[in-house]
Design a protein that fits this description.
CATH architecture: 3-Layer(aba) Sandwich
Helix content: 25-40%
Order of helices and strands: EEEHEHEHEHHHHHHHEHEHH
Radius of gyration: 17 Å
Number of strands: 8
Number of domains: 1
Structural class: alpha/beta
Strand order of the largest sheet: 1-2-4-3-5-6-7-8
CATH class: Alpha Beta
CATH topology: Rossmann fold
């Protein structure tokens, strides 16, 4: 599909060459949906959703975050701070002369979507965070969230965590994130270019303190939060309680299924997004 409807493009921000997928670069009048991936994924995870949203008349943009996919690697750990990456995505809209977009994010992409809507409110028309609630709601969630999110602390061990994640033991990507529907591809990608794994975990290293201890701004746009009951990494309350940080209309949906909703349920997700954006 990438060599069909979707085209890979690049732009520069913060001195980095950043990659993104664009379903309609020659149709600037289409309404825009910005699709943000999380860990350990890249922009291509959105292709089944892009196909459906594009067919419904939207222009879909799916960036590879710094160091992921085809985007340039950062040179310092602090380059991967979530607020800076959120600014990268807002800068993409500015570079394409897009005044406002609907923003959909999964996992870390959801956290980035919240940050864009909070710090760049004029850029976001409607917001669809999937799995991860508002960063402050996540930080204040019950102790169970700290227990099942133990890997965020494991990722703080440079070198050691990468070595174990690329192995086959109990702390490997394959074991810790066994529910990922395409883990074989993830393992092949990370082993072929280990620097990409360091980039993927660097957002945790650069951002964890701010996520846990700094209150992030509320969002003013209408928001649809989606959570799945089979999520092994997140509790439902951190999404439900995100209503406290939404000044627009808030809608919450809880679905059956696992953590990777865009990969596991692209048809249902596309339908829900289209209905919400209509």
């Amino acid at each position: 599909m990438e060599d069909g409807v979707v085209q890979r493009q690049r732009f520069e921000h913060r001195g980095f060459q950043l990659s993104y997928l664009d379903s309609a670069p020659d149709q600037p009048d289409r309404p825009v949906v910005l699709l943000l991936h999380g860990f350990p994924d890249e922009a291509a995870m959105w292709l089944p959703v892009i196909e459906r949203l594009h067919s419904a008349g939207y222009r879909c943009l799916a960036p590879d975050t710094l160091g992921c996919g085809a985007s340039q690697l950062g040179t310092r750990s602090r380059d991967y701070h979530a607020r800076l990456i959120a600014d990268d995505h807002a800068a993409l809209l500015a570079a394409l002369n897009i005044r406002q977009a609907d923003v959909v994010g999964h996992d870390w992409g959801a956290a980035l979507a919240w940050l864009i809507a909070g710090h760049h409110p004029d850029r976001v028309r409607r917001l669809v965070p999937i799995s991860v609630g508002h960063p402050t709601a996540y930080a204040r969630a019950e102790f169970r969230q700290k227990q099942i999110g133990w890997y965020t602390l494991f990722f703080q061990l440079p070198g050691l965590s990468e070595r174990l994640l690329l192995g086959e033991g109990r702390f490997s990507l394959r074991r810790v994130f066994a529910s990922h529907p395409d883990m074989d591809t993830v393992m092949q990608r990370m082993r072929a270019e280990p620097a990409r794994l360091t980039a993927a975990v660097s957002i945790y290293r650069a951002s964890l303190f701010d996520v846990l201890f700094r209150t992030q701004p509320p969002v003013s746009c209408d928001t649809l939060g989606i959570y799945s009951t089979g999520d092994r990494f997140l509790v439902a309350s951190q999404m439900r309680s995100s209503a406290r940080w939404v000044r627009g209309q808030w809608r919450y949906e809880q679905w059956p299924g696992g953590h990777w909703i865009p990969l596991e349920q692209p048809a249902r997700l596309s339908k829900a997004v289209l209905e919400f954006l209509a």
